[in-house]
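Before relying on records like the one below, remember that each one covers exactly one chain. Contacts with other chains, cofactors or solvent are not represented anywhere in the record.
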Amino acid sequence: MWIEKPLEDRPDGPYRLTLEGDGLKLERSLDRDEAHRVLAMVLGMPTASPLPAAATGSGPPLLSAREALDASQASSNPEKILAFAVHLERDEGKPHFTRLDIKRCFSSAREPPPHNLNRDFVTAVSYGWIHEEANGRAYATTTGRSAIDSRFATVARKARLPQAP
């Protein structure tokens, strides 16, 4: 699709998406990259997303969702959710993600998703591994990335488990 007149782009945002019609009303704030992806999708243009550092050769090689899960040594569902969160950030270059992104990671890794993904996601948040914003966007915290880097060290794992009376 050819655009006759170039669109005005503000580098500092904020951007606001509004969709209305037939009893539906959606309003959402977007950052600049999200706004560009939505605009490209609506106009039927290819989306250009920046390559993660790993793809440029300045970082470790990219891992698939399955490889990231295996490398993390995650065993519980909250640990797997964190492993996928860090994978999305480090290997796919997505600083923010949603619960749907995590669900897609389970699928692409051919890993059975948790029966109660929301409960396990909230558990990962309660451990301080993930921070979820009010708009549903989330990111792995420094504590979460440290847990992945330490491959869920036994001491940390014991500290999270409830003690028997």
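Residues 77-90 form the longest helix (14 residues).
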